[in-house]
Amino acid sequence: MKRNFIINLVLLLTLSSASYALPISDKDNPHNMSNLAGHSGPKAATTLAGGTDRICVFCHTPHSAAAKSPLWNRKDSVTVFPLYGDADLAIKKDVGRTGYDASDQTKYPNGASRMCLSCHDGATSIGVLLTGAPIAMDGDFVTNDTITGIVDLSTSHPISFNYNADVVANVLQTYKPGSYQLPLGVIDVPLDGAGRMQCTTCHDPHEDTRGDVNYDFLPFWRHQGNATSYSDVCNDCHTASTVATPPPIHNIP
After folding, report:
1. Coil vs helix vs strand at 60
2. For residue range 144-186, what is the model confidence (pLDDT) as tens digits?
3. What is the pLDDT of residue 61?
4. N or C: which terminal CB in the chain sees fewer CB atoms within 10 Å?
5. Helix residue spans in the chain (DSSP H)
């Protein structure tokens, strides 16, 4: 009887966890762009030659990958990305500490954020890979300029800047004392390997959460679903900010 109880508990927890996010293998995860996908976003052609039922190939390859990210299979975007538009932004005023500088477009954005923008730039063909033949896409979804998934960095949260104790103490605290802290490590909001804030600090590209009310319908949100999922992530760095209702997120469908 005890054994059956444990088995049932494990099954219950598994089912509960599954409701929080759709893994990349799920046909309704928008980053599953194989011809088996069931969503209305970009996906490989189902009737034309050149489509594919592979999922990972749109971003990864086991051979001849780009060195900038593990097994990366996408070309760099040629789009010039503007910085966040607030002229009074503190991290703009001490580029030496923060590295938040768009004067060199080969370095901004950087890291994982540049990987995200190799699709979400509004210009790069989704089916054109670094290694391998181009993938035919279904319908009009050949390039991102045919959908509403374009990220405007001038109106989005700043990314690709150093976020460390020096920046908090000598840049942010002088701007708004007591309003910032380094991530506490209680929830999953990782900086990248170089200690920089990136898109992947708040978003996990493999687990889509937008269908769960506990996530406030946020796309690919890192924090486990609960009534304060949005503000919990914000408040891991913004100590004086509690946001009850999330604003529109980059206009990503």
Report:
1. strand
2. 444 455 678 888 999 999 999 999 999 999 988 999 999 888 8
3. 95
4. N
5. 2-18, 95-98, 111-116, 165-167, 173-175, 199-202, 229-234
